[in-house]
Specification:
Chain A: It comes from Streptomyces flavochromogenes. The complex is a heterodimer of chains A (about 220) and B (about 290). A four-stranded antiparallel beta sheet of chain A has the order 1-2-4-3, with helices on one face. Chain A has a four-stranded mixed beta sheet with strand order 5-13-6-7. In chain A, strands 10-9-12 form a three-stranded antiparallel beta sheet. Chain A starts with 6 loop residues before the first strand and ends in a 9-residue tail after the last strand. The longest helix of chain A is centred in the first third of the chain and has 17 residues. With about 220 residues, chain A is of the alpha+beta class. Chain A is about 20% helix and about 30% strand. In chain A, β3 and β4 form a beta hairpin. Chain A folds into two domains: about 60 residues, Gyrase A, domain 2, CATH 3.30.1360.40; about 120 residues, Cyclophilin (Beta Barrel). Chain A contains four helices and 13 strands. Chain B has about 290 residues and is mainly beta. In chain B, a hairpin with a 7-residue loop joins β16 and β17. The longest helix of chain B is centred in the N-terminal third of the chain and has 10 residues. Chain B is elongated, with a radius of gyration of 20 Å. The chains are: A alpha+beta (about 220), B mainly beta (about 290). At the A-B interface, β1, β3 and β4 of A face β15, β18 and β19 of B.
Chain lengths: ~220, ~290
Amino acid sequence: MRTTAPRALRVGERALLVELAGGEETEAFHAELLRRRAAGTLPAVREIVPAARTVLLDGVADPDRLAAELSDWEPGPLPARVGGAVEIPVRYDGPDLAEVAALWGVSVEAAVRIHTAAEFRVAFCGFAPGFGYLTGLDERYGVPRRATPRTAVPAGSVALAGPYTGVYPRSSPGGWQLIGTTDAVLWDTGREPAALLAPGTRVRFAAEGVVTGGGR
Amino acid sequence: MTDRAVVVVRAGALTTVQDLGRSGYAHLGVPRSGALDPAAVRLVNRLVGNPETAAVLETTVDGCALRPRRTVTVAVGGAPCPVRVDGHPAAWGTAVRVPAGSVLEIGAATRGLRAYVAIGGGVDVAPVLGSRSTDLLSGLGPPPAAEETVLPLGPDTATAVRGSVDAPPWPGPSDELVLRVRFGPRDDWFTAAALRTLVTRAYRVSSASNRIGLRLEGPALERALRGELASEGMVLGAVQVPPDGRPVVFLADHPTTGGYPVVGVVREADLGAAAQAVPGTPVRFTPVR
């Protein structure tokens, strides 16, 4: 891994935006922040918000001092992949599935196999509570957003945009390519934790009603 | 049925339950939410003897009317407005006793936009992720008040002497909104001319402003860099510049991540005034370090 020191940009009076070289470095840096917070060696921070290539630290008493500290950090290793992934059952019946398969140059069946074979990780959340941006598909499977967003995407829609897969926690407007539907509840404030997917969570999608080789 | 409640008689344009917001869930996509003018919330809560964190009502433009089921102490602050109890004038900005069954009428703001109504005991709707605030971006918290909405109250445990606190009377919003802005983190996405434009030219508050952002009308800010910025975390007060070049100052219900560059961040202390600026108010940004 590259060992470029992260670049910390000031954001107003109380925040820092730490820029990293790429997605993996961002995940590793985020994990390092959480380790230090758990160990009590990180100054008090109100929010730690990972994104595609940055981590925002908001509610920091002395951002310049923290920025100076960060530059000395050794890049931590990527978090170990221990424990099982969250499995999300999907009916691959989305209105854009055929178009996505065509963009990938494969059959619909093969597209489903590609999507269910990948192991995903929640890179970050945003857009709506419980909406995770999942990475894990090979780069060549990136797809553009739809030219015209839909005014209402149903809750539980499994969708693709750019390098990401996402699941809509509730009905909302959206421009992602819809490939399927799940009954999994992504967000429920009556539940602890409310979010099924948090940054760092590993995820697999399983085709519902499709019997795979060794599976049940 | 408990009598520890108020009934909404007139909901007004937009009346929501607000406290000081949700902290610690931005990484799950949960906005901070909370009152747009938190100083006003702290003050009205102190006036009725509530903790500063108690939930209050935030009205927009034309106030609201409430009927308490038991006798309560209330205080109205934020935007100056007429206050009446059963048609009789009552004081703004101080504790007022409202007998059970009477109607408390909070009239249209005479200056500013948002009035805050603290009620002894606080509005006691169920908290969601540690806050009772209505978040209009993501739909968390109670829905905006409607006619006949019943809002439960907490037990009134005030022990402090009520009616006055040692706070200077708020003069109301000024004719011009001055926002102190610190450039960054993405000022390098804009031309030097655009940065000068932001801090020298006049803007105006757009009527499209809401709890998510203060939208501004005025000269567009030209970008030096084309292309797309990868989504990144957003803070309160961020001045985000969408493709049309007109800056938007993020307020409490702002999204937690965004893909448009943030040219600068407004001081948090200036955002209460931003939330009280009526559409058409002139806006001037002044750079700070």
